Amino acid sequence: MTLLRAETRRTARPRRHASLARLERPVIGMLAVAAFLLAWQIVGSQEIIRSDLISYPSQIAATFFEMSRSGELGSNVGVTLIEFVEGFVPACVFGIAAGLALALNRRLRYLVAPLFAALYSAPMIAFVPVIVVWFGVGRDSKIAMVFLAGVIPIIINTATGVNEVSEAWIRAVRAFGAKRRQIIVKAILPGAFPAVMAGIRLGVGRAIVSLVAAEMYVSILGIGRLIQVYSNSGSAAPIFVLVVIISSFGLICVNALRVLEQRLAPWRGGG
Amino acid sequence: MSHLVVDGVRLVYDQSAGGEDFLALDNVNFEIGDGEFVTIVGPSGCGKSTLLMLIAALLRPSAGSIRLNGREALSPGWDRALVFQDFALLPWRTVLKNVELGLELKGLAAAERQEIASRHLAMVGLRAFERHFPHQLSGGMRQRVGIARALSVEPEILLMDEPFGALDAQIRQVMGSELLRIWERDRKTILFVTHDIDEAIYLADRVIVMSASPGRVVREIKIALERPRRLEIRNRPEFTAYREEIWNLLEEQVRSSGSWEEAGDAAARGD
Which one of A2, A3, A169 has the shortest CB-CB distance to B88? Predict the structure, then answer.
């Protein structure tokens, strides 16, 4: 399928226009963002709509520098980042291992599949009170939230990916007398890699949402806590600063994962 | 001494999940000598591919035994190497790394693996494509990789399961001639399954004709055509006589089994 796509792409456009065509999408995207920011700036700064409700880009930028200078941004963002890493790295390790175990063990899968399906569709924020009872008010609760929210899509995607590994790849390895462990290392894990990465990308999004929500409920530090603090300040600008930081972090994570995937699995790019 | 002995092999697919047991192969007997090129033809669904899987020990026979050099083949190993109709290359590995697969499982050191794999790629004319990925190659080139991969482990016998079945007619002929050229050089024992009658005669020292389901050996036909062979040999009267003999046998099989249309298609492709 990837082959077909690559070929139609190649024949659809002559070679020398390829680099221009590649720029088309980001350029149009950036133009749209610029137009939106400009409109927002005018509507907000001219008070066409009350600026304490919607703020405007230059005000948000100013607020950003103010908050950075006072140090409150750095310390809180740092706390959130560290909590994220401390919860998400174990989620990846455990999620991949659990997904693999589930896919390779039919009875285990039957046992826990309904549970995971239920967990997958449940909003993790609903678990905050229970998590707090288990882990107390503080870092541990937030790390647990990141882990819990991130691990579920990783497990489910890994298990699905392993189940969808082509029978031909396993046959090829098995025909050379590979043992079970070698079949897993040489055929199943690399074959499931794209699905695992998709699970991790999904997990990043869910983990960030759950972390910020948890911080809003139970925390004295972190981005979520700052949102809570500024929600009574009478100005929308600080909230927008924080929202932009959170979305940038999510974007950076997802793109970094995509670059990593292209590095490790160039065979999927069709190039 | 015979090299490969297939002795009273029977295979029953156990349909314990519901439905009747299916008898795929019944009392299959034949022997192959060292360095012999033997092809198997039979109507679709006669179990000829299944037979290869049994010899490769990817399946266990329900009765009978398969011995290679006097030893029973109980598990897959490097003494038998398979070439598959769907190529079964690993898409995340380069061409060179694909050929190294069997050598890795054999436990060879990296430098040695690379040297052996390069040599075999040169043999199939793909030296310049070592760093390519399978999706960048044509079907014929992919199967050359499959053949290089199988030969690289220096098997006692090469088992080829309709290896050119997925290729178009011209490429198939070229690949057949290429295979003969390689075979003339080191006279590796080859067992080659096909439903293409011309291909079966052109390549073989001996053609084994199998019956419709359940598969049995109907006749073994020694092909007394001189080697090296050229494609023009297909127009010779002896060749035509072989073709007619095999075609009549298959037609008989197909009529008696009632699956006329399906198998007739397969046999017709041999013309």
Answer: A169
